[in-house]
């Protein structure tokens, strides 16, 4: 049996209509990618399957400095106690070889006076290495071996003290401690500056001691694929900043705004506002300089992912002049304000400069309309206040109205009375 043909033509059916409907562009959702650099500057990188662990022992000093404090203190304590026990055994052997531990021995000079057991040898080892010298146990000139052990223990003790004190000093004076007072804005912004689309961040130093020769480097990290099909999971692209073009270093006396002009050499050149939110790029900011007080090179790092880049915003001013002194309000350090910015990419702006002009004109018109609305609201409020005050005056005046008084005067004709008010 043949299927009955529909009365409605196929082109006007539901499938045909749906196929001809215009579709909105669909952007892929951004995949949650792990950050390469955390907001506090730590590297989100784990080293696995390192087979040549002996390389760390070839640089013992750096290994000790990089360890956590609890492991460092355990190593320090173990090293000192082990050296005391080792030389305590040496002193006990010297006394045993000389016969000082024999209780039947009389009228002979000992190598070390009052050293009669291992406990006394351990106490004497501590006194020698830390130069306490209580005076009860004293070495004599009868044993050249004891003199040799004394010299060796003093040399070993000085080496251990020098290494341990150096490690403690380097751990307390590490450059990352100074980086705690170098701050970055929570968000980065993209806005028009000098008729160019720019990527901007704000940096600052909370201390009065300056960072000498401060430099700022920007890098874009993202996953890329070469034309040959090679996948590069961490592709680092250097980004030129406006400060690096003008000079080699920054004068970081007050908070500064670091600006990157998005031109044809920028990795952000082809990204629009919508495409930026869907991208998986990460912008790394590295601030380096020499600490003025210690002369140690320090480095502060942070990063911005696409969710932390605000399109069409700009930083509010925080430096003001008060009574002849420049004042910085750090409570507004990361505050931004919306500004008129085209949502297209920098490439489209270069190809069609009229987009920027139209955006600025629309912003100016909206600003003028908002000013008119504010002025009209102020006039209406003032007129309402004036009307309310005049009405109250009328009510007050009506309450104070003079009442009518009638005066009656007799007429010549007799009894008629005229009322005069």
TrEMBL record:
<dbReference type="InterPro" id="IPR014756">
    <property type="entry name" value="Ig_E-set"/>
</dbReference>
<keyword id="KW-0812">Transmembrane</keyword>
<keyword id="KW-0406">Ion transport</keyword>
<dbReference type="InterPro" id="IPR040445">
    <property type="entry name" value="Kir_TM"/>
</dbReference>
<dbReference type="GO" id="GO:0034702">
    <property type="term" value="C:monoatomic ion channel complex"/>
</dbReference>
<keyword id="KW-0633">Potassium transport</keyword>
<feature type="compositionally biased region" description="Low complexity">
    <location>
        <begin position="378"/>
        <end position="396"/>
    </location>
</feature>
<keyword id="KW-1133">Transmembrane helix</keyword>
<keyword id="KW-0407">Ion channel</keyword>
<dbReference type="GO" id="GO:0005886">
    <property type="term" value="C:plasma membrane"/>
</dbReference>
<feature type="transmembrane region" description="Helical">
    <location>
        <begin position="71"/>
        <end position="94"/>
    </location>
</feature>
<keyword id="KW-0813">Transport</keyword>
<dbReference type="GO" id="GO:0034765">
    <property type="term" value="P:regulation of monoatomic ion transmembrane transport"/>
</dbReference>
<feature type="site" description="Role in the control of polyamine-mediated channel gating and in the blocking by intracellular magnesium">
    <location>
        <position position="161"/>
    </location>
</feature>
<dbReference type="InterPro" id="IPR041647">
    <property type="entry name" value="IRK_C"/>
</dbReference>
<dbReference type="GO" id="GO:0015272">
    <property type="term" value="F:ATP-activated inward rectifier potassium channel activity"/>
</dbReference>
<feature type="domain" description="Potassium channel inwardly rectifying transmembrane">
    <location>
        <begin position="37"/>
        <end position="174"/>
    </location>
</feature>
<feature type="region of interest" description="Disordered">
    <location>
        <begin position="366"/>
        <end position="396"/>
    </location>
</feature>
<protein>
    <submittedName>
        <fullName>Potassium inwardly rectifying channel subfamily J member 8</fullName>
    </submittedName>
</protein>
<dbReference type="Pfam" id="PF17655">
    <property type="entry name" value="IRK_C"/>
</dbReference>
<keyword id="KW-0472">Membrane</keyword>
<dbReference type="GO" id="GO:1990573">
    <property type="term" value="P:potassium ion import across plasma membrane"/>
</dbReference>
<keyword id="KW-0597">Phosphoprotein</keyword>
<dbReference type="Pfam" id="PF01007">
    <property type="entry name" value="IRK"/>
</dbReference>
<comment type="similarity">
    <text>Belongs to the inward rectifier-type potassium channel (TC 1.A.2.1) family.</text>
</comment>
<dbReference type="GO" id="GO:0007399">
    <property type="term" value="P:nervous system development"/>
</dbReference>
<dbReference type="InterPro" id="IPR016449">
    <property type="entry name" value="K_chnl_inward-rec_Kir"/>
</dbReference>
<dbReference type="InterPro" id="IPR013518">
    <property type="entry name" value="K_chnl_inward-rec_Kir_cyto"/>
</dbReference>
<feature type="domain" description="Inward rectifier potassium channel C-terminal">
    <location>
        <begin position="182"/>
        <end position="352"/>
    </location>
</feature>
<keyword id="KW-0851">Voltage-gated channel</keyword>
<keyword id="KW-0630">Potassium</keyword>
<dbReference type="InterPro" id="IPR003278">
    <property type="entry name" value="K_chnl_inward-rec_Kir6.1"/>
</dbReference>
<feature type="transmembrane region" description="Helical">
    <location>
        <begin position="146"/>
        <end position="169"/>
    </location>
</feature>
